[in-house]
Design a protein that fits this description.
Blueprint lengths: L4 H26 L22 E3 L8 H10 L3 E5 L10 E7 L5 E3 L3 E8 L5 H5 L8 H15 L4 E3 L5 E5 L2 E12 L2 E13 L4 E8 L1
Parallel strand pairs: 2-5
Antiparallel strand pairs: 1-4, 3-5, 6-8, 7-8, 8-9, 9-10
Length: about 210
């Protein structure tokens, strides 16, 4: 039987179409379709923070200067508790500590040291240092009065630190003080110079800055 050319062309075209469809179907069935995975948000895991506590060192038996320097180097605030002015810290011995040694406390906490004078020598003779007989205790008293006059809301001389310089005719004091103004307290420094005698002291200069 003889097939006409147009019919042959139609048959070939149909065969190619069927083949292409089959290949397409196979290709589609054989293709790996990736399933979208749920996006997981990376939750930030908190890092362990550095310890905010530290142990109070044992400074009992040290002189007040050594003890204060030790605590200060470890980040503590230091306060001295004494029965009189602590003018020269190295002359005082630490007898108690609050908090007690080896106690865990927050970093930067205040440690109060109870201190006692190293010797029982006559305090007045120890402090009488100017040629005119002015004692350091009286000079400190005069400066305190001047501070309370200038800062009636509050004036407190810290019982440690600073410096005291004695010259033949006067005493110069530079210490840390806490003052209050308009209901606000702040820590600052006082410079004060006193001359004269214990009976008649003279305030030469007074400055808080």
């Amino acid at each position: 039987m003889r097939v006409s050319r147009p019919l042959v062309a139609i048959l070939l075209t149909s065969a190619l179409s069927v083949g292409a469809g089959s290949c397409s179907a196979i290709s589609t069935r054989g293709e790996e379709v990736s399933t979208p995975q749920p996006v997981q948000s990376a939750s930030a895991t908190p890092k362990p923070s550095a310890s905010s506590q530290t142990m109070v060192p044992d400074v009992l038996g040290m002189n007040a200067e050594q003890a204060a320097d030790t605590l200060d180097s470890m980040g503590f605030e230091v306060e001295l508790d004494a029965d009189r002015w602590v003018l020269v810290k190295s002359n005082w011995t630490v007898t108690e500590s609050n908090p007690e040694p080896d106690t865990m406390v927050d970093f930067g906490s205040t440690v109060t040291l109870t201190v006692e004078k190293l010797s029982d020598v006559d305090e007045e003779e120890t402090l009488r240092v100017t040629d005119e007989g002015l004692t350091q205790g009286m000079a400190m008293t005069v400066c305190t009065r001047a501070g309370k006059t200038q800062f009636p809301e509050g004036f407190d001389i810290k019982g440690f630190g600073g410096s005291i310089e004695v010259i033949p005719e006067s005493i110069y004091i530079d210490v840390e003080v806490e003052v209050s103004e308009v209901g606000v307290s702040r820590t600052t420094h006082m410079e004060c110079t006193v001359s004269g005698t214990d009976d008649k002291p003279r305030l030469e200069d007074f400055l808080v800055y």
